[in-house]
Design brief:
The protein starts with 5 loop residues before the first helix and ends with a helix. Helix content is about 35%, strand content about 20%. The chain has about 450 residues and is of the alpha/beta class. It has an 8-stranded mixed β-sheet, sandwiched between helices. The chain has a 6-stranded mixed β-sheet with strand order 12-13-17-14-15-16, with helices on both faces. The protein has a 3-stranded antiparallel β-sheet with strand order 9-10-11. The protein folds into 2 domains: about 300 residues, UDP-N-acetylmuramoyl-L-alanine:D-glutamate ligase (3-Layer(aba) Sandwich); about 130 residues, Protein-Tyrosine Phosphatase, Chain A. It contains 15 helices and 17 strands.
Amino acid sequence: MRFETLHDWLSWQETLHPNEIDLGLDRVAQVQARLDLTNPKFTVITVAGTNGKGSSVAMLQSILLAAGYRVGAYTSPHFLRYNERIQINGVPVDDGTLCESFERVDQARGLSSHEDSQKVSLTYFEFGTLAAIDIFQRANVQIALLEVGLGGRLDAVNILDADVALITAVDIDHQNWLGDDRETIAREKAGILRPGQAAICSDPNPPAALVDVAEKLATPLLLQGNDFEATIVDAAITDANNVEKRWNWSGLAGQMLDLPMPALAGDFQVANAAGVLAVVEQLYEHRFIPKPINEHEIALGLENARLPGRFQIIDEKPVQILDVAHNPHSASALANNLRQLPCQGKTRAVLAMLADKDIPAVIACLSGLVDQWYLAPLDVPRGAGSQQLMDALGGQNSHIFDNVISAHQAALNEANPEDRIVVFGSFYTVAEVLSQAV
């Protein structure tokens, strides 16, 4: 074996390919074929979108597990451990399983060559994608959930044909790779669609380009508000004299009434959940599962779904909220969640972002809700400096710190019990605070 530890494998993978991101399927498909992974035995559900991918995968995984299926889930990025990216039945795979799979991928990069320079070069994400497929195949999963890393058409997970494709909310992000407008980005997302295979879009305002691609491919694309629908209703008064929300769903084959709200915070999660239930419906309609998943299993799955870093509350007095919001769409969702959560004190925001994000637009979404800003740089290649954040904010009610941890600690030191602290701006930002909380 080339390396004995997961840390060494990952460190090497980070330097293996000259570019961190190098979209395209030719290289990864070569290695896929050598590993005999072109026709896996499991059902493939591929999830693309700008926002809502992780939430949708979490809910799908939870529902399918509640229904008794053996499920693999491949997501990115991770927060604390790489193992989080590849899960079987909701449990991250162990280091040994990953190392053994990495060795198989490495060997397949050049079956007849002992020189690395003559082997197929793979990016960090491509290496992990092949390992995930290999692990799922060997673990005999019945259904694999594959979250697209970037775009869709040229993303590594697209080497597998989706039996069911789900496209969540589409918005502007990653412009350097995907394009500057929503319609162009939608065409990249639509790259996961396949002729004749089931597809769902959970975005309530689907881009015209997505519908156009589906029509040209003869892909039966189900749209929210047309082929399936979700409605939030007020169901009951709780002991605390609050109105408990429930929701109803209707699809092509039937409806489900009085469903529990998803455990993931925010009314907007109902749109994601509606798309998830459309996927579940199509799994049975296309005979990928032998019987419909019943309402009890769906309710159980919705209530048990968990996803770190999405309006995750880690403490009280003061309340601490972690959210990976890093583009205007997700920042707007964060702002709506904050408006729905009463706060008698001040809102203190710890912000660190990547430099290629729309920093002014993200700040604008939160500016009316934040009393004090704590700005920090991210110590990663694409990280924005504190001064870049300060300039976008205009310098009002803000302080600069050397790193996320010191910014977070300052917010804690200055906060009163009735205040709340919101940590957001990037997966990296949330990961740094989470690493101190465990």
